[in-house]
Structures are given as C-alpha cells and as structure tokens.
Amino acid sequence: MSEQKPIILWTHFRSVSHAFQRTFLQRPQEFHIIDEPFLEFVIDTHDQHLKAVKTCIADSSKSADPNLFMPKILSIFDKIWKPYYDESSNKPKRTFCKEHSNFFLKAISGTSLLSNPQFLELTHTFLIRNPEKSLRSLYKAVNFIFKKNPGYFIPDFDKNLAGFKESKQIFDLIKDLNKQPIVVDADDLIDDPERVLKKYCELIGEEFKEEMIHWEAKNINEWNGNNFTITKLMVYNAENSTGFNEFTKKYEPEIEYPQIVYDAIAENKPYYDYLYQFKI
C-alpha cells in the first residue's frame, strides 16, 4: 500500500523537529523511529565529540571519493525501508525518519542517490521554522548550550548550517516529479498542534490520535543510541517537555546578536518564504 511507504521529515537546526518526532514516538506499536541516520557522516564516531559539523558541511573541498561511501549510504536506505513489526502483536510498523537536509545532501554529494527509487519513493515531508527564530536559537545553542560543556570542540556560528537552501533543493526535486511534498511550519505546530497534526496525518494516510500532542518528560532512547554530544545537547528541550505549548517559552534570555546572524537570516528568509507558501 502506498500509504505504508516510509515517512521522512526533512528539517533544519532548531526547528522543533525533535518535538515533532515525539508525536510519533507516542505510537510505538505503529511507528518505527529512525533519527538522523546521516549524522554519522559529519561526526567523528571514534571519540564521539562534537567535531567537524561546520567544516564537513561548509567545506566543498572534501577529497574522498564519494563512491566509497555508497555501500554505507545504501545500507541506511535499506534500514529505512526494512520491515519492522510490533513485538506484542506482530503487526507491521511504518517507519518515520527525521533527517537534516544539509547533512543528507552533504553525505550523498557526488553520488547518484537523488535518482535512487529508495529515495524518490519515500513519503517526503518538511518542517520549517522562520529563520528569525531558528537561527537566533542556533546562535544561542552554540554560545550557551555547547559552551556549558567544556572539553568538547565548539563550532562558531556558521550560516552554512542553516539548512533552508538544502530543504528547498530536496522539495523542488520531489515537486518536479509531480509529487506534492508536505510542509509544516513550526509556528503553526506550536500554536495549534491538534489541527496541524490532524492534517499531516490525513496527508500521510494515517489516523490522528490524541496522545500525539501530549507526552511525558523523559529520556528518549532513540535519541541517545549514538551517544553523540551534539544529539544530547540538541534534544534537551524536547526530552524535558510535555507538549508543544512549552516551546513558546524562552529557555535562554534574549541577547545581542552579531551581524553574521542577521546576515544569515536575510540570506535564508527567501528559501523559508518559498517553502512557507506550500505549508499545510
């Protein structure tokens, strides 16, 4: 059945994407969750420190033959398409995968993966958040969250991490195939999660359930399996929340931002505005 194809949520930093993912974690008998499988291509898995996030995405001079990564990339797609079953009922579960657009496009750079049926046949959905909010949040994450953890590599704020351009690139590719990707705006999700999730579920061929909009504050195993420091830091708010209403709070005080943040906002606002016109 076409509606049982894996769902992928393309997103960018600080878009409330882990909170969005919690809605499907609330339905473990029905959905199998895969979180950011391409992260390992930009993180050093040996010392598990935050490392090369900026350079691996921004540096286009990567010298390694991209085809050397193909077996690993294909294995990730096999994992996404693999059948999963609920242990208690042995009923098939649908895969819900979340990934950063820029991580993915960097990982497959120089390959033919964008024409691979395992990529094209996914149910493509997008989560966007106004860069005036998401990029300010990213700057504060770099300067407040990361720097509270001494001993780890701390990247400077880099506008190449924004991810809006890459989300538009994937969106246009799918749209040009006469498919209509699903776009959710984070502000709508926070303001009226029930309405937005009902529509999202309708479009992916699933039934909305009330338990999707409230959850328990707890550690999420699916986010900690890789033990990457960046993951642990980025998911803190989503793990310690009980619903979308808590994301209207400011977890850090407002600050003065350097010009590079405003430049990044201005550069990415057109990509956001473009995707915004397709939102549900």
Automatic annotation (TrEMBL):
InterPro entries: P-loop_NTPase, Pyrrolopyrazine_biosynth_F. Coiled coil: none annotated. Transmembrane segments: none annotated. This is P-loop containing nucleoside triphosphate hydrolase protein. It comes from Gigaspora rosea.
